Structures are given as structure tokens and as C-alpha cells.
Amino acid sequence: ERDGERYPIQDDEQWVSLYASLWPRVGNDLTLRELVDTVLGDTAHWGEDLTLRPGLAGQVTANLEMILVQ
Fold it and tell me: Is residue 26 part of a domain?
């Protein structure tokens, strides 16, 4: 949900399930950066380890932090 409106998530069920299971762990046993590193590092999803792209994980983390405070 965003701004009171629901929107459909369009991804394969295995990824939706994985990320839905990771998100509640943020702030408990997983930091936001660890979540980002886990998601971006999933070579099965992306075909490569996106954490190796300079600055990407930091930028994604910063963007998520901005979304969370809105």
C-alpha cells in the first residue's frame, strides 16, 4: 500500500515470499543495509552479485531510509 492505495506486486512468487520473509527481520536481527546486501547479492535473482557494483548498495539503502521516514 502506498498513499492509501494498493498496488499489485509483479514478481515471481519465490522472490515475493523471500523478500516478505526478510522485511520483518529489519530492526530485529537484520539491519537495513544487511537486507539490501542480501537482496542485491542474490545471484539467482539478478544473475550477478549486485553488491559488487560500486555505490549501489549504499544508494539503495539510503533510498529505503528516505522512504521509511516519509
Answer: yes
